[in-house]
Amino acid sequence: MQAMILAAGFGTRLLPFTKLRPKPLFPLLNEPLLLLTVRHLQAAGFDHIIVNCHYLKEQIVSALSGVSGVHIQEEETVLGTGGGLRMALKHMRDEPLLVTNADIYHSVDLADLYSTHGRDGASVTMAMHNYWRFNTVCVENDRIVTFSPMVSGNCLAFTGIHVLNPEVLCTIPLCQEYSIIDRYRCLLEEGKKISALRVDGCSWTDMGTVEDYLALHGQLLRNEIPLWNEFKNVQESPFLFHRDVVSGGGEFKDWVCVGRAQLAEKVCLQRCVVWDGAELSCGSIHHDMLLV
How far apart are CA 5 and CA 89, in angstroms? Predict the structure, then answer.
């Protein structure tokens, strides 16, 4: 099975932190989300994985260096979701392709989505759920009707996970910025079928804002949502500290995740994520913050 991880975006909603590293490399429980996603796909049976990159692409290339089964596509210009997929067409096998965003954490059964695709002759199968913040796609009888919200009709949210037949990419202009949703709109106009697979009940987080990023850590550390088996630092505690953290002792409340950081004496942390390299001064108090 083959898959592609879309990892070329700028992550503007996470500025200024995305000036330091691209969003796909934001650590989740002290491990880069992109590497976790690659391992998660491989565990599900995907042995050929394409990863595209543009913004701070040198960091992504370095992070994936030596990872077997992964092809890295460096994009010199902004190509968008459709343009990136079109450029990758030459690297794809003649079989369906699973596509996922690089900034989401979820419990969707990827192997099931892949095997479900195409049973009813669909060109694309999209994983959809009821998520009020993003309910903009109209679905009827397990088919996508329109990508514009309607007053009447069942509107759902696109998870960013979908399976497509590679031939649908052939008409996308090469080396131009293009949205894959625009291509899907054209498919509907052509009378082609786009299936909607409901994944309600699965956990799902779009790591688009600092608030979302912190909330995801809290849910994972409090065991409120499933932990991927690919995490190396699983523990039964809401307080996760890297083994190389330097700490003078402090007070920790609710949940905390600390990377290779230096914590001076009497530091107080509550619902915080601390990245590698951070230095927290003596007696400082932090809550609901990402610290770098």
Answer: 13
DSSP bridge pairs for 156? 137
The more confidently predicted of residues 44 and 249 is 44
**Phi and psi dihedrals of 185, rounded to 5?**
-60, -40
pTM above 0.85, yes or no: yes
Q: Is residue 221 part of a domain?
A: no
Pair 192, 137: CB distance under 8 Å: no
How far apart CA 20 and CA 275 sit, in angstroms, is: 11
Full residue range of the structural domain in which residue 88 is found: 2-206
For residue 272, CA distances in Å to 79, 140, 267, 289 come to 35, 42, 12, 5
Dist CA 283 CA 116 (whole Å): 55
CB 102 within 8 A of CB 14: no
Residue 222 lies in a domain: no
Task: Write the single-letter amino acid at 81.
Answer: T
CA angle 161, 167, 173 (to 5 degrees): 90
> What is the C-alpha end-to-end distance of the chain, expressed in Å?
38
Name the domain count of the chain. 2
pLDDT digits (tens, 9 = 90+) for 142-166: 999 999 876 566 899 999 999 999 9
The CA–CA distances, whole Å, from 97 to 3, 54, 126, 161 equal: 5, 21, 12, 11
φ/ψ of 276, rounded to 5, equals: -55, 140
Please, which pLDDT band fits residue 278 given cuts at 50, 70 and 90?
A: very high
